Amino acid sequence: MTKEIATPARTKELLKKYGFSFKKSLGQNFLTDLNILHNIVKAAELDAQTNVIEIGPGMGSLTEFLAKTANQVLAFEIDQRLIEILDETMAPYPNVTVINQDILKADIEKVTKEVFHDALPIKVVANLPYYVTTPIMMYLLTSPLKIDGMTLMMQKEVAERIVAKPGTKAYGTLSIAVQYYMAAQISFIVPKTAFVPQPNVDSAILQLTKREQPLVTVEDESQFFALVKAAFQQRRKTLWNNLINYFGKDEETKERLQSALDFCAIDPQRRGETLSIQEFAALSDQLVKNK
Ligand code: SAM
C-alpha cells in the first residue's frame, strides 16, 4: 500500500523523483507529521457534507487528508512545478481538483461554482505560505463567496495578533479586521520541526468561524477601517495625535474629532490599542454623523 504523502520517507522519495527544490520566496515548508494533519482535519470539523478550498497544496500532504474526509476539494497552487507531482499523488482521489493559479488572482466564486457539484457548506483549510498570509486572509474574508469556516496554519506570532484582545501589545488593525468578520481562536501550536525545510519560527492553527453579522454594526465600513488604521498609525502616540495626523490638523477637523470623542466618552489621551472594537464602531458612526 502506498504510504501517506506526509510521511518523511514518501516526501523524500517524491522530492528526489521529481528533482524538486523548495522555493523560499513561495513560502514552501511542507508538513511531514501525520499526527498534526489528523488534528488539523479534526479542528476543521469536516464531513462528507462539506466542500473544501485549499490554498497551496504543495505535494498534497494535507489535500490527501481533506479528500478522505470532505465531499470535494478544490486546491489552488501557484507553483507550476508541483502540478505534475500532484497529478501523481492525487490520482487516487477523484474528488480533488487542482488549479494552477495564484489564489489572489483567482475568481474563487466563479471557480467554486464550476467545480463543486453540490451546494454544500464551504470551508477553507490551508497551511498558508508565510509571505502572503495576511493578503490571502483579507482576500477570503472580504470575498463575496460564503465561507462557513477557515482552519489556517500560519506563523504563531501572526495568529496571536489575530486573536488579541484590547490593551495588549499584539492587538491591532489585523485583530480588528479579522474579528470583525469572524470569531477567531487558536486551536493548537505546531512546532517548526513538523516541516521540511524547517521554518525559523513555530506555527499555529487558527480556527475562524463565520459570524452571521459582523461583530459590530457600522454606518460606513470604509470610515470604520480608516479610523482603525489611523488609531494604530504610530503605536506610541496618543489616539488624539494619531487622529489629527491622519484626518487633518485644521480647526474644523479637530473640533469634529473632539466632539465625536466627547460624545463617545473616549479620552483622547488614550492609546489606540486600548479601544475595543465597539468603541471604534461608536466613534466611527459619530464621525460619519458629524461630517
Ligand atoms: N499544503 C502543503 C503542506 O502543508 O505541506 C504546502 C504548504 S506550503 C506552507 C505553501 C504552499 O502554497 C506552497 O505549495 C506554495 O507553492 C503555495 N503558494 C504560495 N503562494 C501561493 C499563492 N499566492 N497562491 C496559491 N498557492 C501559493
Automatic annotation (TrEMBL):
| Sample GO molecular function, one term | 23S rRNA (adenine(2085)-N(6))-dimethyltransferase activity
Against Gene3D superfamilies, the record matches this protein to:
Ribosomal RNA adenine dimethylase-like, domain 2 (1.10.8.100), Vaccinia Virus protein VP39 (3.40.50.150)
What Enzyme Commission number(s) appear in the record?
2.1.1.182
A single cellular component GO annotation: cytosol
Q: What role does this protein play?
A: Specifically dimethylates two adjacent adenosines (A1518 and A1519) in the loop of a conserved hairpin near the 3'-end of 16S rRNA in the 30S particle. May play a critical role in biogenesis of 30S subunits.
Q: Which HAMAP family match?
A: 16SrRNA_methyltr_A
Annotated protein name in UniProt: Ribosomal RNA small subunit methyltransferase A
Q: Which gene does this sequence derive from?
A: rsmA
